[in-house]
């Protein structure tokens, strides 16, 4: 594990934008999380009665909806309050921490960026309804990576403004936590006996995709909202609608045949409603990015170095019902296992 982290997560690469898509099996979004959320996911609000899951009783909905692991119990300090406020005791503890190396710049960056990444990782759990229902994104590893990577990138835009060497250290350790989570999720899918060769190939693909998406976001942030919307459309929505645009001059029979094939493969482009809602969804992501970067910009360097970044806001206004995701995830896993057995 550490070798993969060292070679892939602890270096900076400068390859051009890549549309590489990982050839991974479709993964249910409720696989174990590397980071446990400090707050439970936002309660979903049922929007209409279009899905069969929304017609089920509330108890069934709550039981079948994907939920994060419960948060650990609150920490209770063993040291008495009067002793923790004693300046002599506090000074002695700080001196001991310096001697043990727990207050060095690198160790501090590792400790604080852990909580920074937790704030990014919990967004996919908190906005499950918006991502998988309203945006109609498939519950796959690719979707999780794209949405989490967007929030990790937003944090790096603020960390770059830290004075040297804190900016480089904090960005490095934040990406380390991100790639450790990526490796954990991949190993959860492939199993403990997965060959290292396969893991290295997939980690290289993720590295290239992370590098390309980060470069495209950086350029788009400077050029304007139109370029930022295009970058989000390519990286988060996987260029949805591009197929339909290229096939607009085909005969109607051929269009119908391709639409039927996409419906069998659960392709969002088979649904015309998803294409009509696409501009609004992309706009919500652009507004979210601008709003959060503005909020992070207002924080002082001391607050950022201490990890006091606050919490991210929501991209979607209303969180749609997610009760159907559990059954859909089980179906996808069975489909993947059947494909592996046939091959």
3D structure, described in words:
α5 crosses α8, α7 packs antiparallel against α8 and α7 packs parallel to α14. The protein is mainly alpha-helical. The N terminus is likely disordered. The longest helix has 28 residues. It contains 16 helices and no strands.
Q: Could you name the ranges where pLDDT drops below 50 across 5 or more consecutive residues? A: 1-66
Through-space gap between termini: 28 Å
**Which class best fits the helix and strand makeup?**
mainly alpha
Number of helices: 16
What is the H/E string?
HHHHHHHHHHHHHHHH
Mean pLDDT over the residues: 74
Shape: globular
Give the C-alpha Rg.
22 Å
- Tell me the helix content: 55-70%
Give the DSSP E fraction (strand runs of 2 or more residues): under 5%
Number of strands: 0
Biggest sheet descriptor: none
Short description:
With 343 residues, the chain is mainly α.
Topology:
Elements lengths: L1 H8 L48 H7 L16 H4 L2 H14 L4 H22 L1 H7 L6 H19 L6 H25 L5 H28 L1 H11 L6 H5 L5 H13 L7 H5 L1 H20 L3 H5 L19 H18 L1
Helix pairs in contact: 5-7, 5-8, 7-8, 7-9, 7-14, 8-9, 9-10, 10-14
Features:
343 residues; mainly alpha; 16 helices; 62% helix
């Amino acid at each position: 594990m550490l070798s993969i982290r060292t070679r892939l997560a602890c270096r900076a690469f400068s390859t051009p934008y890549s549309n590489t898509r990982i050839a991974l099996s479709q993964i249910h979004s409720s696989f174990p999380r590397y980071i446990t959320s400090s707050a439970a996911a936002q309660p979903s609000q049922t929007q209409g009665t279009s899905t069969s899951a929304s017609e089920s009783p509330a108890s069934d909905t709550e039981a079948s909806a994907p939920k994060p692991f419960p948060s650990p119990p609150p920490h209770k300090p063993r040291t008495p309050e009067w002793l923790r406020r004693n300046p002599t005791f506090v000074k002695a503890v700080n001196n001991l921490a310096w001697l043990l190396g727990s207050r060095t710049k690198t160790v501090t960056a590792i400790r604080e960026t852990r909580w920074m990444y937790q704030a990014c990782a919990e967004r996919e759990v908190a906005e499950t309804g918006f991502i998988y229902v309203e945006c109609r994104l498939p519950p796959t590893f690719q979707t999780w990576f794209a949405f989490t990577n967007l929030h990790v990138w937003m944090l790096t835009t603020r960390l770059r403004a830290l004075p040297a060497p804190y900016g480089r250290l904090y960005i490095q350790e934040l990406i380390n936590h991100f790639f450790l989570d990526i490796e954990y999720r991949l190993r959860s899918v492939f199993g403990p006996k997965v060959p290292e060769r396969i893991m290295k190939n997939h980690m290289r693909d993720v590295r290239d995709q992370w590098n390309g998406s980060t470069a495209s976001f950086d350029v788009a942030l400077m050029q304007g909202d139109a370029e930022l919307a295009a970058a989000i459309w390519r990286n988060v929505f996987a260029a949805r609608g591009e197929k339909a645009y290229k096939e607009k001059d085909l005969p109607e029979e051929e269009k119908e045949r391709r639409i039927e094939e996409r419906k069998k493969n659960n392709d969002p482009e088979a649904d015309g409603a998803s294409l009509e809602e696409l501009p609004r969804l992309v706009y919500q992501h652009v507004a979210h990015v601008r709003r959060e970067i503005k909020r992070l910009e207002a924080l002082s360097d001391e607050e950022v170095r201490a990890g006091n970044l606050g919490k991210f806001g929501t991209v979607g206004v209303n969180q749609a019902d997610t009760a159907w995701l559990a059954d859909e995830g089980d179906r996808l896993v069975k489909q993947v296992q059947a494909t592996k057995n046939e091959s």
